[in-house]
Specification:
It is a single chain. By secondary structure, the chain is α+β, with helices and mostly antiparallel strands. It has 2 domains: about 70 residues, Rubrerythrin, domain 2 (Single Sheet); about 70 residues, no CATH class. The protein has 3 helices and 10 strands. The protein has a 3-stranded antiparallel sheet, with no helix packed on it. A 3-stranded antiparallel sheet has the order 6-10-9, with helices on one face. About 5% of the residues have low confidence.
């Protein structure tokens, strides 16, 4: 049998086994110490037995949902709840360097820099870096990737660069 009562601080409805009557617990909703009352509304966890023999119970009346009837209340607070996930503030040096500029990433693949049989990878990377300028440059990273070449029907390994910058 359960003792069903409301927390005197936050009015959260709680249910505790009858063996816990008179003991002190922390309310799970507000965290205040409360004493479990011994004289409260007592409920049974099973259906009461009927006085007269009843017909065979249906599957719905024997299910767990039919046996357990919960009466729960949502705690009401006077103040707004605290945020469980806080956003970190941006580092000060990021704001000083260019807080109004967005972080951008540009990838240059060597395969896309071949024109008329000439490899123009170095020229295209240099031209892009001059356009970005050193002050806005965050980092340059080499990449290796695989692609399927339709002309020779093989998987080819190639390289490129990934450029992170503000702009």
């Amino acid at each position: 049998m359960d003792i069903v009562f409301n927390c005197p601080n936050c009015e959260q409805e709680l249910a505790v086994d009858q063996t816990g009557a008179g003991s002190q617990i922390d309310c799970p909703a507000c965290g205040e110490k409360i004493t479990i009352p011994s004289t409260a509304k007592v409920t049974t966890s099973a259906l009461p037995t009927p006085a007269a023999p009843a017909p065979a119970p249906s599957t719905i009346s024997t299910s767990a949902a039919a046996k357990v009837e919960l009466h729960l209340k949502v705690p009401v607070r006077n103040t707004p709840p605290e945020s469980l996930i806080g956003k970190p503030k941006p580092p000060l040096n990021a704001v000083q360097k260019g807080g109004d500029k967005r972080l951008r990433i540009h990838t240059i693949r060597r395969a896309s820099c071949i024109e008329n049989g000439h490899d123009l990878f170095d020229e295209k990377v240099s031209a892009f870096l001059q356009e970005v300028t050193e002050a806005n440059l965050i980092g340059i990273h080499t990449i290796v990737y695989e692609q399927f070449d339709v002309g020779i029907q093989k998987i080819m390994t190639d390289y490129g660069v990934l450029i992170a910058y503000r702009g």
